[in-house]
Amino acid sequence: MSDDSGSRSIGYWGAVAIGVGGMVGGGIFAVLGLAVQLAHGGTPEAFVLAGVVALLTTYSYVRLSLTLPSQGGTVTFLNHAFGTGLTTGALNVLLWLSYVVMLSLYAFAFGSYAAALIPGGGAFEKHLAISAVIVLATGLNSIGSKLLGEAETSIVAVKVAILLFFVAVGLFGVDPSRLAPAAWSGPTQLFAGGMIIFLAYEGFELIANTAGDLGDPQRTLPRAYYSAVLFVIVLYVLVAGVSVGNLPVPQIVNAKDYALAEAARPFLGQAGFTLIAIAALLSTASAINATLYGAARLSYVIVKDGELPAVLEHRIWSKPLEGLFLTAAVTLLVANLFDLSSISTMGSAGFLLIFGAVNAANLRLAGQTDSNRWVPALGLLACAVALAALLWHTWTTSPARIFVLAAMVVLSVAIEGAYRTITGREIRVRHRRAHATDPGPANPGESGPGKA
Fold it and tell me: What's the CATH number where 157 sits?
């Protein structure tokens, strides 16, 4: 994808690939086991519930992207709607922290599948793989390698093809009784299962960063957004149904860190386990590479708006890499110190807050975006209810994690508040699309934030 402001090189299928690649960037490989642990036979329905929240929010992204086309995406929307006060700045910092959590989820999944492929692999091998993939991706980004960036579309096609193959073969062995309502968990558990894995749908908003490069955006952008989200909802429901329909819930939960590979055993044997595990390694590695680039670019955009320290704007080797290195360092800590459930809970809560704010932004700007106010209002309500359900479940099952979630929010406000107080730096709102001459964070000339 070109950053050249004079070119409109992305078509419908390219935009759909960015959205699908963002959502199926590795999340489904990581969170399937968590969803099954909570929802049991109702796991497909849990993915539908999370998908409905994402679909409602999609409307706001469509209207805001058409009105405010910018590579800043979510940051631009929030700044334009709510100004540049402490709350908006803190939300933008929270967005960056949420991307760090996503990176940690991908890295944790990579380590889990890598350890599962190593005979006798355990905690040491898992954490070694977690750290190695983060360091490798940071190195690739720091030298400006386009290797994985240029292969992103192909990687998306490969991993989607493997998942569709998994579904096509596995459907023949599904035991319907395992998916019947009698096999579902209670309504509260089922809903909580959908919300704890909500971050599996994070990624469709990356289409917003392409709005300025789309040909005929008024027609292409809405179709691309809705096509990507609807396709992924159907894909996740089928994957979940095949997994639970072929493998008893206790076995999936026992292997929850690499549940999708384990679910392939009953109908594809060890070869299927290996195939899915390799697909997970490829998917999560490419997702880490692209998301690290995207998070570094996000930190750069926030810095340019004056909401993070200007030191992150400085250059190393003619590239503004401080944001990249800071993002990688924090990711190393989170991925190695927290378990899968904690990481998923943090990520889902963070993005529910951000998506709720985006719905609120569209509601506030409905006159400019030509929106039906009831849709963003419903989206805001859905995000609020989903977040409340996630917090309630977390409080009743793992109260200590509430303090981790609270720490994310408090840290975002504290960073923004302290920075404003100490520096008094001017906050700037920019609504233009970045040009090719605008320095990127690490890989100039590559696509904007995205996940393979």
Answer: 1.20.1740.10
**pLDDT tens digits, residue range 4-57?**
444 456 788 888 888 888 888 677 888 899 999 999 999 999 999 999 999 999
| End-to-end CA, the chain | 13
> What span, in angstroms and rounded, lies between the C-alpha atoms of 32 and 395?
22
Q: How many domains does the chain have?
A: 1
Summarize pLDDT for 98-107 with one digit per residue, the tens.
889 989 999 9
Q: What is the mean pLDDT of the chain?
A: 82
Q: Looking at per-residue confidence, does 314 or 235 come out higher? A: 235
**pLDDT of 423:** 62
Please identify which residue in the block is written with the tokens 């909500």: 198
Q: Which domain holds residue 345?
A: 12-423
- pLDDT of residue 318 exceeding 60, the answer is no
Contact between 273 and 434 (Cβ < 8 Å): no
For residue 109, is it within any domain? yes
pTM of the model: 0.83
CA dist 232 and 45 (Å) reads 14
Q: Identify whether 437 is part of a domain.
A: no
SS (H, E, C) the chain: CCCCCCCCCECHHHHHHHHHHHHCCCHHHHHHHHHHHHHECCHHHHHHHHHHHHHHHHHHHHHHHHHCCCCCCHHHHHHHHHCCCHHHHHHHHHHHHHHHHHHHHHHHHHHHHHHHHCCCCCHHHHHHHHHHHHHHHHHHHHCCCCHHHHCHHHHHHHHHHHHHHHHHHHHHHCCHHHCCHHHECCHHHHHHHHHHCHHHHCCHHHHHHHHHHECCHHHHHHHHHHHHHHHHHHHHHHHHHHHHHHCCHHHHHHCHHHHHHHHCHHHHHHHHHHHHHHHHHHHHHHHHHHHHHHHHHHHHHHHHCCCCCHHHHCCECCECCHHHHHHHHHHHHHHHHCCHHHHHHHHHHHHHHHHHHHHHHHHHCHHHHCCCCHHHHHHHHHHHHHHHHHHHHHHHHCHHHHHHHHHHHHHHHHHHHHHHHHHCCCCCCCCCCCCCCCCCCCCCCCCCCCCC
Q: Would 6 be classed as within a structural domain?
A: no
Give a yes or no: residue 74 inside a domain. Answer: yes
